[in-house]
Amino acid sequence: MTSKDLRAPADILNMPRRRFAGTGALTLSAGVIAMLGGSPGLARASSMDPAKDVGILNVALGLEHEAIGAYQLGAESGLLSKGVLDVAVLFQSHHKAHRDALVATIRQLGGTPVAERTSAEVARAIKADTLRSQADVLEAAARLEMGAANAYIGVIPAFTDSALAKVAARLAADETMHWTALAGALGKALPMNALSFGA
Where in the chain are the domains? Predict the structure, then answer.
């Protein structure tokens, strides 16, 4: 894949990931999760506050834009070996799928998805000028993935229906898988303690 195949700048890069996992995110309605899970009929019936849900989803969308943009910059940096670049492209495709699901849900709720930032804004936000090696790029990506995993885990307790919680858990699982692969590539040990995500 070429860098042309990886176009998409980030958004809401200055929004701390923990803010998404805070109390506001826990009000995500069952309707939104139903839409994300492919059940728009259930979503229409159960969404209580679409405007609030759109706001929360736009923060989540910003996180996905951020990841897409970060992988884009990493891919274009010239610092990644062929094998690592292939994995970065794969992970970016996962974030694009998350983004597409969020955009569709926001539109179904009558909202407007947040706009993307320029590549220059993304570079400044993630301090791309400090990335000097493949390890630097992987470290930056691992931090973003850990933050995303924790953010999605933060919304799971809001659900009493396990089917609805499953969608948020699947998103968190993708981010956790990405972090684990990146940590392995960096030669980092697995966490020594249980329950290391979502704390």
Answer: 16-185
Cβ-based neighbours of 148, under 8 Å, separated by 6 or more: 17, 63, 67, 175
Name residue, tokens 């597409």.
Answer: 100
104: number of Cβ within 10 Å: 14
DSSP assignment, residue 194?
S
Helices (H), the chain: 17-20, 30-36, 40-46, 50-76, 82-108, 119-125, 134-155, 162-185
Q: Which CATH superfamily is domain 16-185 in?
A: Ferritin, core subunit, four-helix bundle (1.20.1260.10)
CA distance 109 to 117: 23
Give dist(CA 35, CA 52) in Å, integer.
15
pLDDT digits (tens, 9 = 90+) for 39-70: 454 444 444 556 767 776 777 788 889 889 98
Cα end-to-end span (Å), the chain: 36
Asked whether the beta carbons of 104 and 38 are under 8 A apart, the reply is: no
The pTM for the full model equals 0.72
